[in-house]
Amino acid sequence: MKFEQNKDTGECDIIFSKQEIDIINKKGKIILTAEGLRHFGNNLVKIVAEWNLNFNKELQKKQSFSNTVKPKKDV
Length: 75
Description:
The protein is mainly alpha-helical. The chain has one domain. Helix content is about 45%, strand content about 10%. The chain has a two-stranded antiparallel sheet. The longest helix is centred in the middle third of the chain and has 21 residues, at about 35-55. The radius of gyration is 15 Å and the shape is globular.
């Protein structure tokens, strides 16, 4: 999976490879080994830090809570 953030808007697309889509369709989930989870977590922390730099100043200051995620209507 690949995360591509638009530096102008701050929005991000999560792009899955054909193989990843096939696995999700077949198994209904993504399975990570303990080592895979460690690497995924480390990379995700790095990506999240980079994303925050691309948000505008107002958005950088906003706090998140468990109920603040709002999905896009066109998904």
